[in-house]
From TrEMBL, chain A:
It comes from the Bacteria. This is D-proline reductase (Dithiol) PrdA. It comes from Muricomes intestini. GO terms for molecular function: D-proline reductase activity. Pfam families: Gly_reductase.
Automatic annotation (TrEMBL), chain B:
Coiled coil: none annotated. It comes from Muricomes intestini. GO terms for molecular function: D-proline reductase activity. It comes from the Bacteria. This is D-proline reductase (Dithiol) PrdB. Keywords: Oxidoreductase, Selenocysteine.
Amino acid sequence: MSITAETAKEHAKDPAVLCCRAEEGTVIQAANLEDPAIFDDLVDSGLLNLDGALTIEQVLGAKLTKTCDSLCPLTADVLEGIKEIEIPAPVKEEPKEEAPAIEELQAVVAPAVQNVPGGVLKIHIGEGKDIDIELPTGLGGGGAVVPALAPAKAEAAPTGIQEAEKPAEEKVVRSLTRKHYKITEVKRGPETKIEGTTLYIREGIEQECIDSQKLVLDLKIDVITPEQYHTYSETIMDVQPIACKEGESEVGSGVTRVLDGVIMMVTGTDANGVQIGEFGSSEGYLDENIMWSRPGAPEKGEIFIKTQVTVKEGTNMERPGPLAAHTATDHITQEIREVMKELDDSLVTDTETFDQVRRPGKKKVVIVKEIMGQGAMHDNLVLPVEPVGVLGAKPNVDLGNVPICVSPLEVLDGCIHALTCIGPASKEMSRHYWREPLVLEVLHDPDVDLCGVIFVGSPQINAEKFYVSKRVGMMVEMMDVDGAFVTTEGFGNNHIDFASHHEQIGMRGIPVVGMSFCAVQGALVVGNKYMTNMVDNNKSESGIENEVLACNTLCPEDAIRALAMLKNVMLGEDVAAAEKKWNPNVKSTNVELISNVTGKPVELVKNEQSLPMSQKRKEKYD
Amino acid sequence: MKLTTKEGMQSEIFVPVTPKPVFTELKKPLSECKVAFITAGGIHKKSQKPFNTSGDFSYRTIEFDTPSSELMVTHGGFDNSDINKDVNAMFPIDRLHELLKEGFIGSLPKETYTFMGGGGNVEKFRNETGPEIARKLKEQGVDVVLCTGGCGTCHRSATIVTRCCEEAGMSCCVIAALPPIARQQGAPRITAPHVPIGSNAGEPNNIPQQTAIVKESLEWVRDCPSFNATKVLPYEYRHNV
């Protein structure tokens, strides 16, 4: 298929290949050329050899000296009138002491123009690279002509001089304090209570959990201590912190109380024994199926309060089934929360405070997190009254999956109760949000201004995917940000909206970095021209959904790369195009480049190879 | 501290482009055609081994005289409730028998093939499963192949197998709930009813809608002018999950 003049312009530096037969004497135009987008496949299959091919910008307007067939690469020996493409002359750099005040600036600044005697116009562009250009004005010291340098990025930033005079002040918008209470033992007893570091769960509470939900036929509680990690479990549907708000505090601010050393774990099947999981499931021995210490996973050494819920047959893959399993489990958690509210401050073992800091004048960025909203287990409860609770929360599906703005602290305070299960390895568990690495990394970086987090659901219907995505575009436009992250859990149909979010943000001229598990099995099913800065969350050895809990979720090492990549794009530093196939070395190189600049090594997490081999993994994957 | 860049970084995820065109023009009237229906939506006989929901490139053989009541779904990528109500929502086998009786199509092959395309291994589907299904359909003298996907990666697997059938000389159409995937992955022809994934061939138990979707997809196989063209079908079904 021939290309348009516009496409030719976009691909000016790409090889020129005839799309159809062209006669001797033809003057080459865009319409004679094939779309470079398909070359990779043709080269791979041996149908095309691009050796010696000229670029599109070189051949446009040149005359063919010989009749050539379709898919013939245009080389110098079949053309006359090839355009010589000039290499831009190197820009002369000035000694740095010329403009010391401006060099200190952190933000991208609009060109600062100085008229100095001698008829020289000095322009300083502080685009992070500090290039000084000298041009003769030719106007005898009169009015200087400022070349039309209009970097779009400079518009939002104040001019450099003003900023130098008045450094922008950080502002703490709100704070969240977490009080930690240590638990070393979990026992059953006549009432739910906490004594010292022992948590007691009321005997017989199971029946109330079962009775509270029509679709729950059975619920068992197992307390799993580290010695019992080699215990068989049904698929893990969620891992949750046990936390409550103190006094009048609301999720996202004030004080949160949280138990250390213990987590809630929801597991289950339907009455026919079918695992409540979608893309695979993590049933098996716990120690073989949990990727320890992932943001969403348990830490080694923690005690699990594990419910095994049985829902009515056939409802495991329909929305009410998994919701009932989660709600029944929350009956127990809620009773623990009530007890926690009464705890004495003397039991607090640690206190940490999170400040939501705004940094006016710094590059303003937003995090867009795509969460699932396709019914069945693909749902999330948004903004419960208690951290990761059920009460008061709205199901994302019922909200129509439209984008919702939350503060970074609401994310870290359990505003998402994750019902999703796209695949155990890439699901973001409720605990993931509690320790969300990208939110933490960006919030704590003094060089950027995180304005907020947008959650957007991924609907089941194609048209609705674009409906919600367009809202994301409008929302991000109104925020006047300099850059955006788009993250997603899972892979497959949600990549349609994931791609569309990139397009909606990118088409507004806003730099965007995408994060997803892709690698081999999750390879993108769609794409567009705005998806040029991407970070792969894969950790698995062979690039697959390996059914190991949280293996391929977003980790600090991914957040670091994404933030570095976004800074690059915001400052105009190139990010090279991805390789055609997943290659783990690309990640390693990116990590290395970052540690070379920062001088700090980036710690990489382990993958499933560090776990004891399960029978399932042996048979199916490794 | 100064905002710094790290030179030389590279994007880590490949963004796909549409592969080369495949297109086999239909040269006889639909009423004389042998029509097959394949699906990536995880349909199989209750007596058969369920698919592995985390990725499976095997396929199941379904005789076309199998009663729809003996079919079921094993698929992790979407809400199964519609197929649990009516398997024709993904694999409209009953509608095909009605169209045969009506004379709208010429015949059905003895058997067809189903698979679960979710999380599907692209290489395996492209080089093994796809060519094998195409060969088996071609050997039965099939002229037209319709295909439904299920979830997102299913649409990719569905499109890969459909392309294999088209390359083997049959005229094919993907009935897509997620047309952007079918289009980008290079489906020869696409019809797009407004349906959620999981009921790609129409609302469960809504026989007129399912019939219309199958009929108009067959007509699109006949009328589609060129590779990768999409026809939006005027049928809407919203699934209240």
